[in-house]
Amino acid sequence: MVAALPGAAAGAGLSIALAADIRIAAERAVLVTAFAGVGASGDFGGSWFLTQLVGTAKAKELYFTSPRLSANEARELGMVDQVLPKRGLRASGPVIVPGAGRPCADRHQADEGEPQRAITCDLGTALDGEAANMVRSMSTADHRAAAAAFVEKRSPVFRGE
Q1: φ/ψ bin of 52: left (φ > 0), alpha (ψ from -120 to 50), beta (otherwise)
Q2: In the chain, what are the domain boundaries?
Q3: Which helix (H) or strand (E) covers residue 4, if one does?
Q4: Which CATH class is domain 2-86+98-151?
Q5: If DSSP codes are grouped into helix, strand and coil, which group holds residue 67?
Q6: pLDDT by residue (tens digit) across 14-46?
Q7: Choosing a second label site near 51 at 20 to 30 A (CA), which of 31, 63, 99, 113?
Q8: Distance CA 7, CA 66 (A)
Q9: What are phi and psi of 70, to 5 degrees?
């Protein structure tokens, strides 16, 4: 499956695009993990897929700092396969794989047992770990404050709560 990225791919949208076999972005596309900015840990398998594409250290950096990457920067990292002028980006039929998975920095805890590294665990384990981490992170006061800040178009203030 091919993901066509004509504009922004952020958060879960980026995660779904990362699940595709091939990602083609318009020159003006912007990619960002985005979860750090709203006090969440990530979902839809993004951490797992991103770790597979760029490695553990770079995936952690992108999840922890959420930089806005241009299409060309994303291509240099291996997140995008091709960058085309907007007029050259054409798609027909389904272009994005319904995805799941995630690199929660570097470990996933699925049910009981030893935590596993995202680079070596299977997708099911990554998804289970993501789901548990999202429930935990989205039940915090920091997440609620960050979500409100996002809606109000202002920077969040994290208090570690």
Answers
A1: alpha
A2: 2-86+98-151
A3: strand 2-5
A4: alpha beta
A5: coil
A6: 999 999 999 999 999 999 998 888 777 888 889
A7: 113
A8: 17
A9: -70, 165
